[in-house]
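Predict the 3D structure for this chain.
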Amino acid sequence: MKSKNRFSELLEQLMTKADVKNYVLAQHLRYDVSYISKWVSGKNIPTEKNADKILHSISECIVSCASDKNKTFLYSDYQVDIDSDLIEAIYDNLMAEYHYVRELLENDNTEIAPQVSYYNELPLHQFISKVKHPIIRQVKSLNVVAALDIFSIDPEYRIMMLELQNMQPSTRREYPGVHFSMIIHIPEHEHDYVYDSLFLMNMLTFQSNIDFQLYDSALAHGKVVFGINNLYSISGMLFDSSHCMAVNINENSENSSAICNKLNSLCNRNTLLFRKTDLQNMLLKYDYIQSILSPNLCWLIGHLTEHFLPDDLFEELLLQTYRSGEWKVDIAELHRIHSLTQNIMSTSEINIFIYASAFSDFIASGEFDFFNHRITLMPHQRALCLQHILSLLKKNENYRIKLIGNGFTNDFRHLAKPSLFLSNGVSYLRLYNKYYTNNVLVLNKANVKMMFTKFFQDTWAKPSEHIVDNPDEITGTLTQHIHSLKMLSRLEKFS
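Done. Predicted structure below.
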């Protein structure tokens, strides 16, 4: 290579920020300094055979040699706060740039203008690999927009799409500087309501640690477009469910900004599929009450919430959390809401899917979602909660529960289990994302509400080996869980 490339530019930037000289890096890698000079100048890149080992060593050297002051800048760039995470983030960034440069050298793409490449046709897995542009590794500040016809794409590539949106090393860390707007098209016919609904819920969960918004527009039909404002864009047209054609990759800031601006014009309140809020605002604006007072209550429960509490335990948890001073809602209003909820659950018709893991996780950890406040319940409190659910089953014959074993589909079996509250009034999602923020989403358009309603109706009516619907088996399972918790409570007293 006769000129600098993206890998060499990143390597030079990292060495400059850490104040690492060529000879220092050469000593750490046990390479001749001439190799380092060629990598930094862009005349060469590490051999593919040794790339993994070399890039790991470079990352370790950058972090270990950086002063505390310089390391602070690197922490900020990669949005991490410990050395081990910084090493992995730098390695990931270097490896992405390395593969990006190597692929440019090996592929037969056509350069149609400076910083613009064109491919006649690409399989979707190759398109997705190009979407994973190295720039997304630097997550301090990103403005991303995409138009993806995800429901016209094979399921395996949708899962890859979930991976490609991973602009951060862990979904347990929040990235307020990353803004991502995605435009999709929800078709009216030929819909797999079950798979598509689960896909959306898991995608929303996966993206809940960034500022993620999902929009609906027919203009997304047949398109796969992805852009990072002022930095990068890639666009193509779906040829079928696994191939795209006329793919343009653009690293010209002016051109990529024009594409992003056009896509952003489609993102507005009328096309927004889910409205982000929080439980306290839902309580203040009476959305929460509307969601339980409306007919046709259908709930999918991924983790236990305040709906399933007896009066005495509700009072105990309310006083415990209200002392924190974080509540905007009057305590009398919360008492009224609880009374209404319990009255409805004791007398009204309600269909509830509960993931079996919601019970097993609750029994093991005691973690409980109390109006989006994370609380850890003692074993005897957990037993009271399950006894209340059991008593409701015995008291109200219209209170129906079905247990979900290994999930509705294999693809989403091991992912986080969301909660969905459907009714003829306000319907909303409560995602489980470990940190209980950006996880409450009101269904904002009729087509997405129809999709989720159809998903619930189809799975409720259709027999499945993954679903337990025998009342005796369900009460037996609850009784066994209660017995285990009572034993655990007695052991805790003696410890």
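Residues 227 and 233 are 4 Å apart (CA to CA).
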